[in-house]
Every structure is written in structure tokens, then in C-alpha cells.
Amino acid sequence: MAHHGAPSPALTPADPQNPEDSLSSLRTVILAASWHDTVMDGLIAGAERAAADAGADAEVVRVPGSFELPVAAADLAERYDAVAALGVVIRGGTPHFDYVCRAATDGLTRVSIDSRTPVGFGLLTCDDDAQALDRAGLADRGDGQPSVEDKGYEATAAALQTAALLRSIR
Ligand code: DLZ
């Protein structure tokens, strides 16, 4: 899938000859907010595809909104090797958007650093629904081509790859 200058998120399938190096043994959780159902479904589908490409089992844990992602991530980081945090915030007419985005972003950053557990950043902060659908891999671009973004996949692949890296250097 083409990306706007982003590194290819494709994950190499787990190597059965090399179980120690495999991504499949990483305990992985997909943490998902519950606003904007259709877009969330696309993000979660992308995240599950990334986990499947890695050969990893990933359970899905839901929180009410993106504001709740950091506290749940903090708890999950204690028992998982990789957390993929997914949410969608769409700009409205008030500054609320900025507060939720800031709280979720700062909170997830803090959790990741403090826990030393990679937290993939799959929070969409969008101006409108069309932008969010595109980033979640769900846009109908009208030319028979799919979206150029798949942020659920990217966030999960990044968390898994970082977790494997940390494991290899510890
Ligand atoms: C309240 C709210 C609003 C207005 N918009 C969103 C949104 O676009 N995306 C999202 O994930 N959550 C939203 N929320 C809910 C907050 O994240 C949070 O769940 C509530 O403020 C309760 O703490």
C-alpha cells in the first residue's frame, strides 16, 4: 500500500525457524476508544491485520473515549509487551477537540516512556469524517483505489517492532 513518505508498515510474518526473534510471542493488546464507530472499525481491522501478519494473538479492549486511553494503557502496559492505542477525535465547534487530543497524546507518551512498554499511536485527530475515514483505510476515493493510509495497521506494527527491538537489546 502506498504511503505519503511514511515507512512501509508491512510486517514480516513470524519466522517459525527462529522463535526467539519472532514477533508472535509478544503479548499484544489493541486498546480502542468507542467514538465514531465506522472509523474505529477500520482502525481495529487494520490493527488486527498487523497482529495477524506478525503471527501474534491480540485481544481488543474498549474504553469509552480517547480521553480514557492513557489510564487504560497504563494498566495494560503492566502485563503486555505491546499496546496499540486507537481513537478518533473529530474537530467540532469548541476547543474541546484540543483538550481531548492533548490529554490523550501527552498521556500515551507518558505511559509509554514510564512503563518502557511501546504504545503505538493510533489516535486520529481529524478535521472531518472524510479525513478520518481516509486515515483508517476506509475512504472511497472514487477511482477504485483504497485509502492511502492505514493508521491502525501502522500503530500496531510500530508497537510490535519497537517491542521486539527492546527485547533484543535488553
Ligand atoms: C466528549 C467527547 C467528544 C465531544 N468527542 C470525542 C471524540 O471525538 N472522540 C473520542 O474518542 N471521545 C470524544 N469524547 C469523549 C471523551 O474522550 C471522554 O470519553 C469523555 O469526556 C468522558 O471522560
Automatic annotation (TrEMBL):
Superkingdom of source: Bacteria
Claim: DNA-binding is one of the keywords in the record: no
EC number: 2.5.1.78
One GO term (biological process): riboflavin biosynthetic process
Enzyme class: transferase
Assigned keywords, A-Z: Riboflavin biosynthesis, Transferase
GO molecular function, one term: 6,7-dimethyl-8-ribityllumazine synthase activity
Cellular component GO terms held in the UniProt record: cytosol; riboflavin synthase complex
Catalytic reactions of this protein: (2S)-2-hydroxy-3-oxobutyl phosphate + 5-amino-6-(D-ribitylamino)uracil = 6,7-dimethyl-8-(1-D-ribityl)lumazine + phosphate + 2 H2O + H(+)
Pathway per the UniProt entry: Cofactor biosynthesis; riboflavin biosynthesis; riboflavin from 2-hydroxy-3-oxobutyl phosphate and 5-amino-6-(D-ribitylamino)uracil: step 1/2
UniProt-annotated binding residues for 5-amino-6-(D-ribitylamino)uracil: 35, 66-68, 88-90, 121
Residues covered by region (Disordered): 1-23
Gene3D superfamilies from the UniProt entry: Lumazine/riboflavin synthase
One family name in Pfam for this protein: DMRL_synthase
The keyword Hydrolase is annotated on this UniProt entry: no
Catalytic residue list: 96 (proton donor)
UniProt: (2S)-2-hydroxy-3-oxobutyl phosphate binding residues: 93-94, 135
InterPro entries for the chain: LS (IPR034964), LS/RS (IPR002180), LS/RS_sf (IPR036467)
UniProt similarity note: Belongs to the DMRL synthase family.
Purpose of the protein: Catalyzes the formation of 6,7-dimethyl-8-ribityllumazine by condensation of 5-amino-6-(D-ribitylamino)uracil with 3,4-dihydroxy-2-butanone 4-phosphate. This is the penultimate step in the biosynthesis of riboflavin.
Protein name per its UniProtKB record: 6,7-dimethyl-8-ribityllumazine synthase
Protein species of origin: Brevibacterium jeotgali
Taxonomy of the source species: Bacteria, Bacillati, Actinomycetota, Actinomycetes, Micrococcales
Gene this protein is translated from: ribH
